[in-house]
Amino acid sequence: MMKKLTVVSLVFLSAAAQAQSHLDRVMKTKTLTVCATGDYRPYTYLLQDGKYEGIDVALMENLATSLGATVKWQKTTWKTLMEDFRSKQCDIAVGGISVTLKRQQTAWLSAPIAVDGKIPLVRCDDKAKYQTIEQLNKPTVRLIAPFGGTNEAFVHRYLPKAQLQLTHDNAAIFQQIIDKKFDVMVTDASEALYQQKQYPKLCALNPKRPLQYIEKAYMLPRDDMSWKLYVDQWLHLNKKTGVYQDIVAEWIAIPK
What we know:
Strands 8, 11, 12 and 13 form a four-stranded antiparallel beta sheet that branches. The chain has a three-stranded parallel beta sheet with strand order 5-1-6, sandwiched between helices. Strands 2-3-4 form a three-stranded antiparallel beta sheet, covered by helices on one side. It is α/β, with parallel strands linked by helices. It contains eleven helices and 14 strands.
């Protein structure tokens, strides 16, 4: 009798969990709530008119369409990403999020959307000076990085001897390097490759040989298996049919 009750209880718990899935909520409300910093091209960028653009913006619109929904954007920062993700009840967080075990402890991460890596972004005239960790990790090197996120974590761990300036304005960093206010930004190859196209005086160094291996993924609410399986399947199909590659190609060309 006890075994039967246990089985019945598990069935009810499973049904309740499924009923509370973000998958069901999005389809019911016709709204996909997305957290993003809006300061990280080519993934997400918030324009002055209040609209977002970027790789993940196009992909989230595609995901919402697959569910008969529209996207509702929630602004966040790299420093408050996890807190805002939970408090604002976002269905998903996007925008160049790196896979880390620390993030996995609090939220779930989707299947990887891309493989990336940390590389230096520097003035092209100085590219010979900043090729390696040894060259970067010196008191004379002026680094700049946005508050929070994996860029700050990388420089704290691997470049403790360098001068570090943290900023809340990620978009202003690139011109500041050109103006020689700083020397280096260590960031993901995807961002560095995009920004060197926008700023021809900047060079993304060794994108095929990054200083640190990373993967990009989407952040999902913890313990919602139905929602994670849907997002992973949607991503898988978009990659197999070329939709994902076509969207990425509009923003960045990865060197072969």
